[in-house]
Specification:
355 residues; alpha/beta; 4-stranded antiparallel sheet; 11 helices; disordered C terminus
């Protein structure tokens, strides 16, 4: 990992400005006639060195298309992609590709070859040198280097794909559903590996539907919906942008706050199921979140009324809640519906459908 010639000092390691790529579709009865279909439209994004960015969105929102466009597998139809502050076209294809590693969602590894043989062949093809044993050890496959591909589990296949993406020590790492097939222990090891890479200066973009797991390691967030970037930034910035404020969980015994008691202007209260050892439990919502003084006032109000507090906890919004807020869907249904192949970006941006 290096900054060639010191170029782009202070600039984001990866920057996208107005990037558009839409897949071309054909109709079975008119194969010669093509029109633009789903894809990504006018995407702006910046990723700094040492940052792990979580890319989320409903099925069919354009996450894989965006990753492939950043990797250069799709040539953007509009917009600019900059690496180290320089346009990718100025750097040249081979030079820019050396800085990017892509882990696709699924690679169908099969045959009698072994992971060691696969990596050695890729190292020879790239002509950059490398240590296949060290790379396989990095992804936790030191005991499976000589296992035939046909005998590997899905988790082992995912690890091999990651090892291939890490060849050449890329500055930008793109991971599409990397947690698929990994058990909880392997997921924890994977998180630790990503943090180590980020600490060394790698910019990492992770696309995954496992939002609970992503919450544990991402530094920033980008949300795609129908091909558009609807929110991006640090977690706190995205929370504020979407109006996803932290809420309070409060539980206790004795005097129970009435369900219509707002504890003051702008505070709403919602009853939850009681837990063992509690007579009541509520969630309290207020625009803008909660200060320590407000928490103290609520605690004091309940205790003065004869209640005993068992729990008073501030809960940050989950990635599911932020995704639901960005798409206008409920937490229970967000992401269940898959976008149609003919889907085009949101019309509010003035995108016209080609005939």
């Amino acid at each position: 990992m290096y900054n060639p010639g010191g170029m782009g000092e202070g600039a984001p390691l990866l920057s996208l400005s107005g990037v558009t790529y839409r897949h071309r579709l054909t109709k079975w009865h008119k194969p010669w006639k093509k029109r633009l279909g789903a894809g990504i439209h006018n995407v702006d994004l910046e990723v700094n060195r040492g940052t792990i960015l979580g890319l989320i969105g409903p099925n069919g929102s354009g996450k894989t298309t965006l990753l492939h466009t950043i990797a250069g597998l799709n040539e953007q139809q509009k917009g600019d992609v900059q690496i180290f502050g320089q346009d990718r076209e100025m750097l040249g294809w081979s030079n820019s590709q050396r800085h990017i590693g892509l882990m696709p969602e699924r690679v169908n590894w099969s045959g009698t070859n072994t992971p060691r043989e696969v990596l050695n062949r890729l190292i020879t093809i790239r002509g950059e040198g490398g240590d296949s044993e060290k790379m396989l050890k990095t992804v936790g496959m030191s005991n499976r280097m000589d296992t035939p591909l046909d005998n590997m589990s899905q988790g082992m296949r995912q690890r091999l794909t990651l090892a291939c993406a890490l060849l050449g020590k890329p500055d930008i790492l793109l991971l599409d559903e990397p947690l698929n097939g990994l058990d909880p222990v392997a997921q924890a090891a994977f998180r630790h590996l990503l943090r180590e890479l980020a600490d060394k200066g790698v910019a990492i973009i992770v696309s995954s539907h496992n939002l609970h797991e992503m919450e544990l390691f991402v530094d920033s967030l980008a949300i795609l919906h129908r091909g558009q970037m609807v929110a991006s930034g640090s977690l706190s910035e995205v929370e504020k942008m979407l109006g996803c404020d932290p809420y309070l969980i409060i539980a206790g015994n004795g005097w129970c706050p009435p369900s219509d008691n707002s504890f003051g202007r702008g505070i709403s209260i919602q009853k939850c199921d009681e837990w063992a050892g509690e007579e009541w439990r509520f969630t309290l919502h207020k625009k803008g979140g909660w200060s320590s003084n407000e928490r103290h006032d609520i605690l004091q109000s309940i205790e003065e009324s004869g209640g005993e507090i068992c729990l008073l906890q501030t809960v940050l919004p989950t990635l599911e809640e932020m995704l639901a807020a960005a798409t206008g869907e409920s937490v229970e249904t967000v992401g269940l519906e898959v976008g149609d192949d003919s889907m085009i970006p949101l019309r509010k941006l003035g995108v016209e459908e080609d005939e």
